[in-house]
């Protein structure tokens, strides 16, 4: 086997350093910064009162002491929930953050890979994200510090039409999502194609690069999963454990 090409691999902390702290919390994001990850990966949804909030599931049940759908809560109600104890008692009191809070923490320190979650539930979420990016001036300092992605190609296209200067990616988790024909179609509008680990092959990565695009597979949860990805010459690795990628 040929040695991996010596190039910079982007280390992307999945929902922060989610192997070590409760996902999508300020504790997890702060730890990822301290671990010198290049990017955070996080998920956004909209609250009942139209606030961009950082949480993965469309319901709060798994990662908090609350019950119900994110869209049925106001931001004030979400902020009262404990989003840390489920992971470990020492994180009791961690809250579900707003995207604005994460921007304030991360600006100038680390890039952010933003996943628009379940956009069909949140009409206008792409416009809301664009407005918040403008308000925080993040793109003024470094346009490459933000990447926006989704499993929903219509959402990716809508966002890209609003902010064409921002890099965008399409997530993939089925084999039919990464055929050569499909990749050629995606390459028309996306800068990244980010698949689940089981879909990553040398042929896939070579095809992505031949199309002039990049790929950052997800989600590494074992150190043993890193070397094959390096051999495949991926551009970045999305991982719960940023320290696994040396």
Write the layout of secondary structure elements.
Blueprint: E1 10-14, H1 26-34, E2 39-46, E3 52-54, H2 75-78, H3 99-106, E4 111-116, H4 125-136, H5 138-141, E5 146-150, H6 153-162, E6 167-172, H7 180-186, E7 192-195, H8 202-210, H9 226-231, E8 236-239
Parallel strand pairs: 1-2, 1-8, 2-4, 4-5, 5-6, 6-7
Antiparallel strand pairs: 2-3
Strand content: 15-25%
Residue share in helices?
25-40%
The profile of the biggest β sheet is:
8 strands, mixed
Overall mean pLDDT stands at 96
Q: How many strand segments?
A: 8
Regarding quaternary structure, what we see is single chain
Short description:
28% of the residues lie in helices and 17% in strands. With 246 residues, the protein is α/β, with parallel strands linked by helices.
Short descriptors:
246 residues, alpha/beta, eight-stranded mixed sheet
Structure characterization notes:
By secondary structure, the chain is of the alpha/beta class. The protein has helices at residues 26-34, 75-78, 99-106, 125-136, 138-141, 153-162, 180-186, 202-210, 226-231; strands at 10-14, 39-46, 52-54, 111-116, 146-150, 167-172, 192-195, 236-239. Strands 1, 2, 3, 4, 5, 6, 7 and 8 form an 8-stranded mixed beta sheet that branches. It starts with 9 loop residues before the first strand and ends in a 7-residue tail after the last strand.
């Amino acid at each position: 086997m040929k040695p991996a090409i010596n190039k910079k691999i982007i280390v992307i902390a999945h929902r922060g350093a989610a192997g070590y702290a409760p996902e999508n919390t300020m504790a997890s994001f702060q730890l990822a910064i301290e671990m010198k990850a290049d990017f955070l990966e996080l998920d956004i949804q909209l609250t009942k009162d139209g606030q961009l909030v950082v949480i993965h599931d469309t319901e709060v049940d798994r990662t908090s002491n609350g019950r119900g759908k994110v869209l049925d809560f106001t931001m004030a109600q979400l902020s009262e929930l404990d989003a840390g104890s489920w992971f470990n008692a020492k994180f009791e009191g961690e809250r579900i953050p707003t995207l604005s809070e994460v921007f304030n923490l991360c600006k100038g320190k680390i890039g952010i890979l933003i996943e628009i979650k379940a956009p069909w539930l949140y009409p206008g979420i792409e416009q809301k994200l664009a407005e918040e990016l403008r308000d925080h001036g993040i793109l003024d300092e470094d346009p490459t510090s933000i990447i926006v992605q989704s499993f929903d190609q219509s959402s990716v296209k809508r966002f890209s039409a609003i902010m064409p200067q921002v890099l965008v990616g399409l997530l993939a988790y089925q084999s039919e999502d990464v055929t050569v024909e499909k990749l050629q179609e995606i390459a028309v509008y996306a800068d990244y194609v980010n698949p689940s680990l089981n879909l990553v092959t040398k042929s896939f990565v070579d095809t992505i690069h031949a199309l002039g695009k990049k790929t950052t597979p997800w989600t590494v949860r074992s150190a043993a999963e890193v070397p094959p990805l390096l051999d495949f010459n991926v551009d970045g690795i999305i991982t719960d454990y940023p320290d696994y990628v040396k």
